[in-house]
Design goal:
Distance between the termini: 29 Å
Helix content: 10-25%
Number of helices: 3
Shape: globular
CATH class: Alpha Beta
Radius of gyration: 15 Å
Strand content: 35-45%
Strand order of the largest sheet: 2-1-6-5-4-3
Number of strands: 6
Structural class: alpha+beta
Number of domains: 1
CATH topology: Nuclear Transport Factor 2, Chain: A
């Protein structure tokens, strides 16, 4: 594995590409972005000291990510049939930590969802823990802190 540092521009390009995959419902390609040991976390409590010890909307390892994608893609998930149309934008990239071949980037994300004739807006602080691997960057952890997760729980029929 290469030990080249990851620049903020490369991390931002990865984050934008990941958003594009999710908006296109390209879930198989999204799964390929992950390191096998990676975690996809959507906590309910924004200030929880340890998400592993708290209640979460999602706390997915590789097997759970694959199961979630199967459910969303099957047409049998009530929240995903029909699938929502989404457009997301990410901005305000802040480097939290950088190593020889890793970077942790926090950004703001606005997601617009259209389904059943209505539009819903979700805001979140998203943290991406990225590592350099064979063939490019991989996700080690993605943590999505929804602005309203601790007040308004609702069905989400797509990946954040």
């Amino acid at each position: 594995m290469s030990t080249l540092a990851i620049a903020i521009e490369e991390a931002a390009a990865f984050i934008w590409a990941e958003a594009e995959l999710l908006d296109r419902l390209a879930y198989a390609e999204w799964l390929a972005l992950w390191d096998p040991a990676g975690l996809y976390v959507i906590p309910i409590e924004r200030n929880a000291a340890d998400a592993a010890e708290a209640l979460n909307i999602a706390y997915d390892d590789a097997a759970m990510r694959e199961a979630r994608v199967r459910r969303l893609s099957s047409g049998f998930s009530m929240s995903a049939a029909p699938p929502a149309r989404t457009v997301r934008t990410s901005s305000r990239f802040v480097v939290e930590r950088a190593g020889a071949a890793s970077i942790v980037v926090r950004c703001a994300q606005i997601l617009l969802e259209y389904k059943y004739g209505r539009t819903r807006t979700l805001g979140a602080d998203v943290t991406f823990d990225l590592v350099r691997a064979e063939g490019g960057l991989k996700l080690m952890r993605k943590t999505v802190l929804l602005l309203n997760s601790d007040e308004d729980l609702f069905g989400i029929g797509y990946l954040l």
